[in-house]
Structures are given as C-alpha cells and as structure tokens.
Design brief:
GO terms for molecular function: ATP binding. Keywords: ATP-binding, Nucleotide-binding, Sugar transport, Transport. Belongs to the ABC transporter superfamily. This is Multiple sugar transport system ATP-binding protein. It holds the Pfam family OB_MalK. With about 350 residues, the protein is of the alpha+beta class. It folds into 2 domains: about 5-225, P-loop containing nucleotide triphosphate hydrolases (Rossmann fold); about 240-350, OB fold (Dihydrolipoamide Acetyltransferase, E2P). About 25% of the residues lie in helices and about 35% in strands. The chain has helices at about 40-50, 90-100, 105-120, 135-150, 165-185, 195-200, 220-225, 230-235, and strands at about 5-15, 15-25, 30-35, 55-60, 65, 75-80, 155-160, 185-190, 205-210, 210-215, 240-250, 250-255, 260-265, 280-285, 290, 300-305, 310-320, 320-330, 340-345, 350. A 6-stranded mixed β-sheet has the order 6-7-8-3-9-10, sandwiched between helices. Strands 13-12-11-14-20 form a 5-stranded antiparallel β-sheet. α2 packs across α3, α2 packs parallel to α4 and α3 crosses α4.
C-alpha cells in the first residue's frame, strides 16, 4: 500500500490554469473520491498522479518517493478508464494477461494472477470470451481485472461507471466497494456522480475550477458543506437556497426573508453573525417537515408533486419562494393543496452573502 502526497501542484494548458496550487494528502489504504462538475480539474489531477499528464509546478510523492517525473509504468499503479479500452481480438484472459507478458512475467505467475483476479471479480466463466460477447458491466470488470493483476499499490479510477445503465452502476459500485475492502489498497476515484462519491468514499475532495473546496468524510460534506457551492452540488434534488438577513428580536436571533421569519437562536453561530447581516439559508428537502398550521414556520401551497417510490418530493410555494421538501409515502398531497411546514434549524446551513463560505 502507498500514501500519496501532492504539494503545491499546478497544471496549465497554455493560458488555461487547470489545477491551482493544490495540496492533498491521501492516506495509506484510503478510498478517496475526487468529485466535481465537468471541467473542474478532477480527471487532470488523476492523470497527473498516474503520470499521464505533465505538471507545471509542485510535486507528487508515493510514500516518501518523488514520482513527479517518473514514467507511468514505473509508478506501481493500476488504472481503470471510462472507456474499457479492451483489445477486441483478444479473449478476456489475454486482455488481462497481455501487460504481464510484455513485462516478461513467468507464465505460471501470470496464470495465478489472472485466476485470482477473475475469481475476485466473478468473471472466471468469461475468460475464453472476446469483448464483443460481453455486457457493459462484464467489460468493465475485465478492465478492472487487467489493473488488478499488476499488483499495484495505488488504483486510479476515471469515471469507470459512466457508460453503464443505472442498475449496472449500482451493482458495480458494490463490487468496487467489496474490492477495496478485500485488497486494502489505496484507491483514487474520479466521478461527477454524487451517489458514487457518497457510497464509495472514505473521504471526498469536492473540486471546482482546479481548487479543492472541501475535503472531508461523506457525512460531513453532505451535512456540513464548507461553502454554498459544495452544499448545492451535493444532494438530489439540490439544497434549497433562500436569501435573507439576520435580525435580533426578543433577546434572540431570527433569519428573515420577505415575510418569512425563522428563529435561529439555537443554531451554533458562536457570535459569527450580527444584526442585519445578509446571508443565504441552505435547507435540504429532508430537513423540512409537515406541521400543524399554528405550529408551522411557513404556510404555503403545493405547486408540484413528484412520487419517488419510497417517498414523495413536493415543490411548494411559500409567498413567492419555491421550496422542495420530502414527504412520507403515506402522506397524501396534491397540487394546489395548502401546506404548513417546520424547519429543522440545527441541520440547516448558512452561507456568507459575498464569499459563500459556511457561517
């Protein structure tokens, strides 16, 4: 196993600054997910770790070894790409063993490694088939197996499930999670899919414009986003955003937006806000609950209902502000119906108006 230390890394393509003075420590045996929208620099960073992209500045270390300018073949890595990149005329066994043969590994050892990887990935029965006779999920397993036989200390995954349908993605997420548990190897995984990030990662590095916005556990990234971008990028549907300002009232503190007034005296601001300070309130749909009208924070009207199977997503209008909130499957609701809700204030997020940083 290997740890990865990235220090002050810069990557430029001409005048385009893709990765900006980035520092990142990846622990021995950790499953780290690089998450972000297209163009944020996550795949470029992964390629730099793998040696496929030259850096403009900074360094990359595996354990205590500087690998910044070492060839990919000498870094001890295994890579799995979005495209399967299998040789169409070769069998599964030959696709998995080809790199080892080129490296001069003895035949007996190659057979042992291929057999082990095939059993681990449950593709033993496919070894004699060619890629054209495989499903998408099976092809991706073969691509993963080809990386496994290299005895790599670090595995790099670049959106490996993007080309699969939803059912196969769910199945292979589970297989990759089991694989990490079985191997204990360091794994770095690039995705724009928040479900993959939340279910697979030990820690998530959320990126935007070549900069890591937050590096933390999935639970903390979701529940305590470092800034407004992180809060709204994670979550389906997205976090509700409500612009307003704080006001001191009756020896307490409230957050006001138009006719809305929400008591936030119990929120752990620790003196970070003052009377009249503007901010954005971020609310997850699951932190808004139905209530009796006289006990509600807000009263409004349901404008759209989306049955989700296990629950219901309702979009409601509260005096011109449209907010999504989740309901239990048994809770009857329909368009045009009056609705009253309370807010779980402690689980809310507040962001500075100008910087978007979490208060």
């Amino acid at each position: 196993m290997s740890s990865v230390a990235i220090e002050n890394l810069d990557i430029r393509y001409g005048n385009v600054h893709v990765v900006k003075s980035l520092d990142l420590q990846i622990r021995d045996g950790e499953f780290l997910v690089l998450l972000g929208p297209s163009g944020c620099g996550k795949s470029t960073l992964l390629n730099a770790i793998g040696g496929l992209t030259d850096v403009s500045g900074g360094s990359i270390h595996f354990n205590d070894k500087d690998v910044t300018w070492i060839d990919p073949k000498d870094r001890g890595i295994g890579m799995v790409f979005q495209s399967y990149a299998l040789y169409p005329t070769m069998s599964v066994e030959r696709n998995m063993s080809f790199g080892l043969k080129i490296a001069g590994i003895p035949r007996a050892e190659i057979d042992k490694k291929v057999k082990w990887a095939a059993e681990l990935l449950q593709i033993t029965q496919l070894l004699d088939r060619k890629p054209s006779a495989l499903s998408g999920g099976q092809r991706q397993r073969v691509a993963i197996g080809r990386a496994l036989v290299r005895d790599a200390d670090i595995f790099l995954f670049d959106e490996p499930l993007s080309n699969l349908d939803a059912k196969l993605r769910a199945e292979l997420r589970l297989e990759i999670k089991k694989l990490h548990k079985a191997l204990g190897s360091t794994m770095i995984y690039v995705t724009h899919d928040q479900i993959e990030a939340l279910t697979l990662a030990d820690r998530i590095a959320v990126m935007k414009d070549g900069i890591i916005q937050q590096l933390d556990t999935p639970l903390n990234v979701y529940n305590k986003p470092a800034n407004e971008f992180v809060g709204t990028f994670l979550g389906s549907p997205a976090m509700n955003k409500i612009a307003g300002a704080f006001a001191a009232e009756n020896d307490g503190l409230v957050f006001k937006s138009g006719s809305f007034s929400l008591d936030v005296s119990a929120y752990p601001f620790a003196g970070k806000v003052v009377d009249g300070q503007k901010a954005t309130l971020g609310l997850r749909p699951e932190h808004i609950h139905l209530a009796e009208q006289d006990k509600a924070a807000w009263n409004g009207t349901i404008s759209l209902v989306e049955p989700m199977g296990s629950d219901i997503l309702a979009w409601s209008d509260f005096d011109g502000i449209n907010i999504s909130h989740r309901l239990h499957q048994e809770q009857h609701c329909e368009t045009g119906q009056p609705v009253s809700v309370t807010v779980d204030v402690i689980k809310a997020s507040f962001f500075e108006e100008k910087t978007g940083a979490r208060l």
